[in-house]
Design brief:
alpha/beta, single chain, five-stranded parallel sheet, globular, 42% helix, Rossmann fold, 127 residues
């Protein structure tokens, strides 16, 4: 099964994303800030990462820049999450290595579509 990391300082957002992602058939790991996420990624890189634009220890863009410096990060897909259209910040995130964007709030269908757009599709679950 594919692993997706949710990086957000909001426990509510992490819980909602966790539920939706598990329902889609993914394994979910969570991090409350960029430093925690980078530490987890340095040990085992997830297939995809959903990262909030505004984190306590670093911005989402800074996280993406740091992530892309890790040896095993080139294949990880990164969805940059924001609640408003911030073109300048989204452009910086794309240049840092974001694979795509996800607007909050999101639902199961939006999440599945955005993951599919960056090449992350859940594996069929055994019956």
């Amino acid at each position: 099964m594919q692993v997706i990391m949710v990086v957000d300082d909001s426990p509510v957002i992490r819980k909602v994303a966790d539920r939706l992602l598990r329902d889609l058939g993914f394994i979910v790991i969570e991090a409350a800030d960029g430093n925690e996420a980078l530490n987890l990624c340095s040990h085992k890189m997830p297939d995809a990462i959903m990262v909030d634009w505004d984190l306590p220890t670093m911005s989402g863009t800074e996280f993406i820049r740091e992530l892309r410096q890790l040896d095993n990060a080139s294949d990880a897909k990164v969805l940059y999450c924001t609640s408003e259209m911030m073109i300048a910040e989204m452009t910086r995130a794309k240049r840092a290595g974001a694979s795509g964007f996800l607007m909050k709030p999101f639902d199961r269908n939006i999440l599945a579509t955005k993951l599919s757009e960056v090449g992350i599709v859940p594996e069929p679950q055994a019956a």
